[in-house]
C-alpha cells in the first residue's frame, strides 16, 4: 500500500512539472513507430454482430458479409471476442477446444476466409486468448477430475478434501462466491475465480504453459496479428494459499493480480511465441500500480505491448461520475507512460454497459452529440484506442425489466445469490439496467427491418427496440450521423500522427465540465475541447493560446461559428467537442 501511495505522489510531482505550458521542448514518449500504436482497434463481439444462418446467433460468415462495413469505418485492427469451441457458460470465455471454432460460429474454413478478407482490407486480427481458465468441458479438465493420479491432474488447482476446507478464495461469478468447488469424483476441491464451469489452469505447471504456447503458435501460424490476454493478471497463484484479510474480495485485484511468477510467465510467452511471430499483445488488467503496469509493458523487459487499466471504466456509476476524476485518471495513466511503455484508451467493451448510457447522455436530446463527444475523446487521446462495436451508432442500454431476459452468467448467478441470501432484488434489478454486461451485448442494429437486420431467426438476446431509428443503414445515409462522425475521426487520427504520438497535456484540470488538452508533436500542436455537461459552458482559451493564433477547426460535433475561432473565448454547447490545430 505504502509503495503505491508513494508512486502516486511521485507521479503527481512529475506530472505537475511536465504540465507547464511554458515548457518549450516537447518530448514524445516512446517514439518508436509501431503499427499497434497507430492502430484503431475495433472490438467485435461475434455473437451479436451478424447472423448468416438464421439460428439467432452471430457467426463468422455474418462478419464476412460485413467486411466492407468494417473497412468503411477506417478501423485498422479488429479484436474478436472468443470464437473457439465452448459450451458458452460465459459466452465463449469458457473454452473446451482452443484449436476449433465454436459450431454456432462456423468452421475453420470460415475463419481462414475471414482472416484473408480482413487482411485484404488492411485490417489486422487480434484474437482473445483465454488461458487463466478453461471450460470444465475441456478434455484436460475431464481427465484432471477423473482421478488424482491422472497425468492432467496438475493442469488445474486441486485441494484434497481430507485436509479440510481450503483457504477461502472469492469467485466473481459463482452463485455463492466460493472459488473452491467440491468435486465428489476424487473428493477434492478445484479452484475457479470465475464460474464453476471455468476452472483455473495451473500456470505453475510447465506442461500447461507448453500447451498454451502450442495453441498460440497454432493461431500465429495462421497469420493472426495479435493476442488479447484475458484475465491474465490473475493467472499466477501463490500456491501456498495464504489467508487474505477479511473483506479482501472488495479489492479482488489487489490480492489476486500479479501473483508470484506472473512476469516470468509473460517473459516466457514473449520468448516462446510473441517475439518469434511479431504479433502484438495486450493484457486485460494492468495490476495494481504503475510499477505493475510498467513491468508488463515496458518494451525493454520483453513482456507485452499494452495493458488496459480499469479505473476509468469503473468510474461511471448510475448517479453519474466526476469529470475531474476522469481527467485525473487519464492524466495519471498518461504520465505513467510518458517515457516508455504504451497505453490503451477505452471507455467501453463487452463487459460494460453502453458507452453513451454510462458516460454520456442517451436521452433523445443528447444521445447523438454526447456519443460523438465521447468518440472524439477516445480517438484523440494518446494511446491505442479500443472502440467497441455499436458505439459508432450510439447504441444505448436496453434496460430489460425481467431477469428471464438476461443472459450474462455473472448477473444470473448474482440474482440467485441475492434470492438465497435475502438480498434487495428490486434494487438489483434497477442497478442492472444501468450496469449489466448484456446492455453492451444486444445485437448490432443494422437496419430497421425485422430484428434490426441481425438475424432472420430468434435473436439469442433481445434487440433494443430503438433499432427502428438507431441503425447503421439510416446513419450511413446521413452525413451528420454518429457513424459518419466516427469515420471522420478515424481518418483524422490516421492522417495526423500528432494524435497518435503527440505529447498529451491537460488544461484547466479543475474545470468540472470541460475536458481540455493539447497534443504536441515537434512543432505541431492540437487542442481538444470537450464539454462533458448538458449546459452551455464558456471556456476561455486565451490563457493557453498565444493571442495571434488562429486555430484551425479540424472536427466538431456542432457547426461552429467562424468568428468564434479568432475570439478564443468559446461557448461550448451541450456535449460539444472541438478539435483545433493551432498555428505556431
Ligand atoms: C474477462 C472477459 C469477460 C469474462 C472473464 C472470464 O474479464 O472480458 O467477459 O467473463 O474474463 O473469462
Automatic annotation (TrEMBL):
Keyword Signal: yes
UniProt entry keywords in alphabetical sequence: Signal
SUPFAM superfamilies: (Trans)glycosidases (SSF51445), Glycosyl hydrolase domain (SSF51011)
InterPro entries documented for this protein: GH, GH13_cat_dom, Glyco_hydro_b, Malt_amylase-like_C, O16G_dom_2
PROSITE patterns with a match to the protein in the record: PROKAR_LIPOPROTEIN (PS51257)
Gene3D superfamilies: Glycosidases (3.20.20.80), Golgi alpha-mannosidase II (2.60.40.1180), Oligo-1,6-glucosidase, Domain 2 (3.90.400.10)
Keyword Transmembrane helix included in the entry's annotation: no
Annotated signal peptide: 1-16
Residue span(s) of domain Glycosyl hydrolase family 13 catalytic: 43-441
SMART domains for the chain: Aamy
Stated family: Belongs to the glycosyl hydrolase 13 family.
Protein name: Alpha-glucosidase
Protein source organism: Parasediminibacterium paludis
Phylogenetic classification of the source organism: Bacteria, Pseudomonadati, Bacteroidota, Chitinophagia, Chitinophagales
